[in-house]
Amino acid sequence: MIISDNLKMYVQKLRSSNLRPTKQRLKICQFLFDRKKTFHFTVETLNKKINKNGAIKISLATIYNTVEAFTSAGYLKEILTSKNKSYYDTNIKSHHHFYDEGSKELTDIHYSQIKLSKVPVPPKGKKIKNLEVVIRIQK
Amino acid sequence: MIISDNLKMYVQKLRSSNLRPTKQRLKICQFLFDRKKTFHFTVETLNKKINKNGAIKISLATIYNTVEAFTSAGYLKEILTSKNKSYYDTNIKSHHHFYDEGSKELTDIHYSQIKLSKVPVPPKGKKIKNLEVVIRIQK
DNA sequence: TTTCTAGTTTAGAATTATTATAAACTATAT
DNA sequence: ATATAGTTTATAATAATTCTAAACTAGAAA
Questions:
Q1: Is there a single domain that holds both residue A11 and residue A44?
Q2: pTM for the complete prediction?
Q3: Hey, is the C-beta of A136 within 8 angstroms of any chain B C-beta?
């Protein structure tokens, strides 16, 4: 799954966001971004996978801090759901989701797969930041 | 705010969903549906308002149970958010939302205000149940 | 009308997700 | 090398929700 050693790139990326390139953050970067495909996760699943067989153990608090920092920095995107748990996406490009009500799984929909021909004017003084479509599916 | 005594209607509505018309459920029905305009709420706010000055006190557990039952029965709709708290909407018609990142408030967008000219085919064996658009806005 | 029973409500305990705390540690500027 | 601000950590605290089991009640049946 891991593509190559992009460590130097992550060091720069973190520095550019005023985040010190600690070994914990770098390990999480590698886990999240050294991949061909983007994916969805929760803090719970990230924590389990990161700490499964790693040399260094990263505390849960750090996982929370890092996910929050990466989201603020724009490396991750929080997903809209109707659950009481945060879901994150390593795909930060504008895109949409299928939400399967049976399996409760989210699948990406490429932004080119959906086209809008009419969009409302935002309230006065506000700008549209982005637009997401969630399509609920079931059997 | 309360339009009229729709009690009989609610009794029928509840019976048709195999929910006994208890005084707690009827009181919650009146609070939620005896209105001209639909609105958004959380269990926390519903609990506060329901128990502010009522004759009967409804326990928090019952508020949870009832909101869950009403959602399953299709009287309420859960809103998509990126928070760790459930938001509900008394507007169950297909519609969309503005999500203000500053104030963290949701506003309804009428269905007719958004038109899609391209929608993806759902995965094999699945049907589209509904489609929601969330437009994130900011200053 | 009374009785019975399954469905409902309730207070409080338990669980789950997240955030706060404060002490120990570390990256990096000087 | 040293100082220090930023970071990590274990643990406690908080918040939202679900569970539990006893008490209560709507409505069917006698």
A1: yes
A2: 0.89
A3: yes
* Contact call for A81 and B79, based on CB within 8 A: no
E runs forming strands in A60-114 = 77-78, 88-89, 95-100, 105-110
The strand pair at B106-109 and B77-78 is best described as: unpaired
d(CA A130, CA B66): 34
Structural domain count, chain A: 2
Please report whether residue B125 resides in a domain. Answer: yes
The answer on A116 and A53 residing in a single domain is: no
Q: Tell me whether residue B81 is exposed, middle or buried, using C-beta atoms within 10 angstroms of its C-beta: 0 to 12, 13 to 18, 19 or more.
A: buried
A74 interaction partners in chain B (CB closer than 8 Å): none
**pLDDT for B31-62, tens place per residue?**
999 999 999 999 999 999 999 876 679 999 99
Looking at the complex, report in whole angstroms how far the Cα of residue B84 sits from the nearest Cα belonging to chain A: 4
Task: Give residue for tokens 């709709």.
Answer: B77
Segments forming the whole domain that contains residue A122: 93-137
Query: Is the CB of B91 inside 8 Å of chain A's CB atoms?
Result: no
Q: Are residues B69 and B117 in the same domain?
A: no
**Together in a domain, A97 and A69:** no
Give pLDDT tens digits for B57-110. Answer: 999 999 999 999 999 999 999 999 888 899 999 999 989 999 887 777 889 999
Q: Cα(A83)–Cα(A136) distance, rounded to whole angstroms?
A: 14
Summarised one tens digit per residue, pLDDT across range A65-100 is 999 999 999 999 999 888 889 999 999 998 999 988
> Does one domain contain both B74 and B11?
yes
Q: Within a domain: residue B23?
A: yes
